[in-house]
Automatic annotation (TrEMBL):
Keywords: Ribonucleoprotein, Ribosomal protein. It comes from the Eukaryota. Residues 15-57 form the Large ribosomal subunit protein uL11 C-terminal domain. PANTHER family: 60S RIBOSOMAL PROTEIN L12 (PTHR11661), LARGE RIBOSOMAL SUBUNIT PROTEIN UL11 (PTHR11661:SF2). GO terms for biological process: translation. This is Large ribosomal subunit protein uL11. The keyword Lyase does not apply. It holds the Pfam family Ribosomal_L11.
Amino acid sequence: MSKLVLNNVVSVKHNGDLTVEQVINIARQMRPRSMAKKLEGTVKEILGTAQSVGCTVNGQHPHDIVDAIRSGDIVIPED
């Protein structure tokens, strides 16, 4: 696990649920390592990881959040 993510994980108490704002913040931190052209793509990568480890986002399955991003219900800022 990267040191950047590990530092955030250690200091945060977990309940298995993230907010969209937290996902966007993580995506901004991971952006230099991502091959995605836009921050939106990096957010989707993070949501895929959240799905893999069993996290929820705003109490919903991460794939539902991806669907909301694709439909335009959730707008991810450019940077």
